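In practice, a research group might receive sequence data for several interacting partners and want a quick structural hypothesis before committing to experiments. The following worked case mirrors that situation: the sequences arrive first, and a predicted assembly follows.
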Amino acid sequence: MIEVKSITKKFGSLFAIKDFSIDINHGEFFALLGPSGCGKTTLLRVISGFETPDSGDIFLDKENITNFKPFIRPTNLMFQSYALFPHFNVFKNIAYGLEREKLKKSEIFFRVNEIINKTNLNGLEQRYPDQLSGGQKQRVALARCLVKKPKVLLLDEPLTALDKNLKEKMKLELKNLQKQFGITFIMVTHDQDEALALADRVAVMNEGNLIQVGSPKEIYSNPENFFVAEFIGKMNFFQKSKIEGGNFYFQDNSFISLPKNNTQNPQCVGIRPEDILFKAKDDSSYVFEGKVVDIIYHGQENEVIINSAISEDSILIRCHKDQTLNLNTNITLYCAQQSFRLY
Amino acid sequence: MKKIYLSLIFCFLYIPILTLITLSFNKSGLPTSWGGFSISWYFDLFDNQKIFKALLNTIIVAFFSTAIAGLLGTLLAMGMELKKSNKYVEATAFIPMIIPDIVMAISLLSFFTLLQFTLGLHSIIISHVVFNTAFVCAVVRTRFKYFDHNVIEASYDLGGKHVITFIKITLPIILPGVIAGSLLAFTLSFDEFIIAFFTSGAGSSSTTLPMLIYSMIRFGVTPEINALSTFIILFSFIIVFISQRAVKGKLLI
Amino acid sequence: MLKNRLILPGLIWISLFLLIPCVIVFTYSFFERGVYGGIEYSFNLDNYARSFKWTYFKILLTSGQIAFLAAFISVVIGFPAAYCITKANPKYQILLLFFMMLPFWSNYLIRTYSWMVLLNNQGLINNLLIYIGLIDEPIRLLYTKFSVVVGLIYNYLPFVILSIFASLSSMNKEIIEASEDLGGSFFDNLFRVIIPLSLPGILAGFIFVFVLSIGNFITPDLLGGGKFLMIGNLIYDQFLSARDWPFGASLSLILVTIMLSLLFIQSLILTRKKL
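A structural hypothesis for the assembly, expressed as tokens:
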């Protein structure tokens, strides 16, 4: 539904986005994920019309909207600071967009009340923004956009300003609203938990480039390169000591065999903490020894830090609260060779 | 201890003013002897045609220069706050506030004379707009400190074009600043002496009240001036009270 | 977008009716007074040389002296006042500041005139002093440097108090507490901690009064008795009586240069402080 084709945007001599292309499907919850400065907010602003790209086009339902001004685009943006009009109450804030469409008063009244119900803002209609809590302000900002029934809703770091409990609540609300309205959501965030939890598909960005795009599962299980592997979730990396005869050697000269059709020259391998196990399984083809040096309690799932001869860095593994491990004990660890990814 | 010191300071600040107010009710009109309570000087004031003409002129000048400066200053403030302004714009908007009024007065006189521009109330108005614009701009800019710039983009996003956004969103939010700035400009123009003196030209038709007061003080003090002073003091206090209420938001929404 | 068009009207007006006139005056300063009071366009620096002659230079020095006294005394009086207000009940602080600023809003001429009433030989202060027996005859208070300084202080004190108050109230109270905790006496706290930290406000107040005083015309004219006490009076005279516009222009330029230098120094000091 949205086709971003080769968008480039510079600020001065700095490239915010470089030749960026992506397709977003109708009804999808799409996330743009990346560290600060990766260009995700710039891309959002290009799609919403507040920045004009230096080159490239944006198509919405096959229509070229690249040069459309924000007031005519069928997109709406939920600002990170919410940008509620301080001199209007909740009702007028939400009604503002509809008034600009020159609808009849009765229809405006109906639609605003409808959305107030759907976003749990009942009873707050007469309040002013400075009388609202953070969560309430956000719902007003959302309602203000949704009431216009846009084709695409753009969200700029919607959960960043909220405290932990509110964040969890809003995650559910956002997901529900998106399903309810069936509108395409494009969310920008630097928090991978948010992206993985909410989105149908995630695009990982860095320094203005698209690094990888896929479903949360794909991104997590198959990070294509070092950046994504490091950015998403936790990953243990092991530097090579040498590569010889089709094998990758660890620091203690143990090795795993590289795939037969391997053309890369990997500098390191990575493995997710949950793929390193205490008990052998059928496919546990790689075994190594280590010593427990620290246990970080989180309640149900704990993290354990292991030192081992196979690497100079500490290794992170996970353990369930029922599995007993003691500090400074030696331990044998098992993993499947397929769990290692080459970078 | 602190209370004593503050009281002394307040005495220092208010005794001169109170002296004038008291004198305006003194029948003898002299600071040396109290001749009894009287409001006769106020009646004399009302009979004085020159004063009324000067007052009218002053109001005209203040009104028009405030109106023009209010517009220019607000636009200037918006331009400076919504887009990054460079050093030259900042300097130009700042200079009128710090330049000595005598220098501004002679510069304007030289300029008008060079162009053989006839002088009168209009030349005073033009001159007053210069510093009033700078002050209005400064006051309105402070209002922008609390302004989330995103609300303007939010308005565009929701379908409001430029003019609508200005009228419905920007202006209401900065209005207290515009009002406070305009009241400040009005007061400054109303009280302004030296620039008016130099740019009013010959002839008494364009004499403003401050010019009249100056000549009264300098060349012929009559006790009417105490009554006039009292009026002006009270008038300016009223303006300040109105300005305070405006800024507090009583005029908002 | 249209941001540039927004600032244009204001900028054009100020440029046309202030900046260009100033440039004109600047150029005049290099010419000569014509025989009939017009301008003879022959470039020279005579006017500037003239301003350094003792008769005129003395006025420049006097202006500086008066401005300095006014600024210095304002700050010395104003600092304790601002300090007292910061220690007052927060509910009343704004009220105190409001009433402190109120006289500032009445007409400048009238405020200055009120001191003429107070200070003249038959005025209130002389009468009071005679009444309590301190003096037998009225002493000359008006039309002196003293009366001009008093007038200037009276006009600008509220601003100084406000400026110092702003600086003091934004100071972190814990720093003073730390000083006390480490054994500082009242005077230690004051001179070693509070004053240095509130220097921006004090400096701003001082320079504000100095700059406005040195270029002042009304106060030296009314309270100084029409003598050529300060530069403002001299410039006024050149343009109205002596009709020597080029000389008046050169004096104006000297005045503006002094002012700009002071403001420049102030900004330098403030940026240094931040480092």
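Before designing any experiment, note the following. Residues 38 and 141 of chain A are 25 Å apart (CA to CA). DSSP finds eight helices and 20 strands in chain A.
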